[in-house]
Amino acid sequence: MFSASRSLASKATCLKATPLPVGRSLTRGLITRAKAELAVAAPPSRLATCQRISLGNRAPSIPSSSKTQVRTLATPVRSNHYAKLTPADVGEFCKMLSGPSSVLTTIQPEGADPSFRTVDPSELDTFNHDWMNKYHGKSQLVLKPKTTEEVSKIMRYCNEKNLAVVPQGGNTGLVGGGVPVFDEVIVTLAGLNKIRSFDEVAGTLVCDAGCVLEALDNHVAEKGYMMPLDLGAKGSCHIGGNVATNAGGLRYLRYGSLHGNVLGLEVVLPDGRILENLSTLRKDNTGFDLKQLFIGSEGTIGLITGVSIITPRRSSAMNVAVFALETYEDVQKVFTQVKTHCGEILSAFEFFDQESFDVVQKHATAHVRDPFEARHPFYVLIETSGSNKDHDDEKLQVLLEDLMESGLISDGVLAQDETQVQALWSLRESVPEAAGKMGKVFKYDLSMPVSKMYDLVRDMRKRFEDHSIYSRDFDQGKPVGAVCGYGHIGDGNLHINIVANSYDPEVEKVIEPFIYEWTSNVKGSISAEHGLGLMKAQKIGYSKDPTSIEFMKKIKDLFDPKKILNPYKYIQV
Ligand SMILES: O=C(O)CC[C@@H](O)C(=O)O
Ligand SMILES: [Zn+2]
User: Fold this and answer.
1) Which one of 298, 331, 378, 464 is separated from 456 by 20 to 30 angstroms, measured CA to CA?
2) At the top level of its lineage, which domain of life is listed (predicted)?
């Protein structure tokens, strides 16, 4: 163990990691994945092997049975309230959008140019199916507007004709919110992809909704700024989709919610009117802050076409470390220590358990090498970002000394350069991708007091064992092969990924409603950052009281009285 008097320089040598040629870019969908190979030639970098502490028997606190009454509904049936698309409708869309490539359809449009070609239904698959291949729609029409005015024309027409519409961004969602359920018209915002302005003094960015998050981050990076959110799906997801789902991600701990970062929105309402509110003002107390209603509304009350957002200054000094720990109790203690020592420079505090780590080691597309000598029950990743390297290093030095002396960490790795920063991040960021490679993933995205988080993971595992349907890595042919607990400790946000051999309703019955009841009983949220979508459209009652739900429904009715936008989703209790 290091003594308190040793300098960071000497530690740095001890912690030295060999260059790790790794790309951090973990993207979903169509974007290619960076080759990630943790080619550690020399022995992996170590902090030190520290004394472990035994915390005795920790019985998980199993909440009493749920008091929450939530009506469970059958899978939705297509509502006859919505009109069926006709060749005349498709002909009208062809007239209102510029260029034949703006209309992708299996229906021969009435009165169309003779050169118009319909497509094979399979060509609509990437729009009809989500990236996990869990949710499948049957839309026959994808519209690709290039301007806000075109979106407005589409909506005016659909509203008049009672045609249901699903807005689609990068199609990287996890709850089936961005794909049709039946034959809804898909309006993809991908064609609205221009940066409108960037104020280099204020750091305010105004852009189209279809801009890809990573492209925006690269753009503002040139001016010394960064986007206030970072997601594994950044190479594919659109800023409009991020705002519509109020995406959280990896920088939430430091920069907070999009409710605080979005300064203004341009929104096309269901009847085609344009709500022009692309303000770049930080302060504006004139009337209700309407934009807040659209942030996290999941495309149910308007289509976001433009976003104005504040971008923070890019940090010039960054440190990333991963620690191995023996107990979840230690994870919490380390979190407290890290906050105490790092204060304002802490930019991420993530955790992942051994099962998540194993899944990454075995199934990640790109090899993510284990930098540790042995496996440990828990890992935490901390990131600091500041503007003064010496100052940050000094803080980190004191933190590391404390952590090692307290025996809270068993092992650790500190990145020595940007490549290693990416490598360490990929240990955490690869969990969803690796789980998806291993099998079909039942994903849960919950927030609750940090102290309760891991009890749920243990209870879930125990439940599968009790039902005799769980064997690690499917090695006994059971339907469940992994229960991964990981997430954003810094935000009290737990992800549970249950890897099964299919989306088997029998497995789902073991998980639900148990997982929602459990979360509700600890006053948590069943939808921390991924949204409700189709998956949780009937589950909102686990997190919100009847009066709140009543007012949410009134808001929906106010903006979308004909209920044409993103039907069957969000709030269907
Ligand atoms: O896939 C998941 O369940 C979580 C995805 C994302 O929110 C993350 O934190 O990596
Ligand atoms: Zn997350």
Assistant:
1) 298
2) Eukaryota
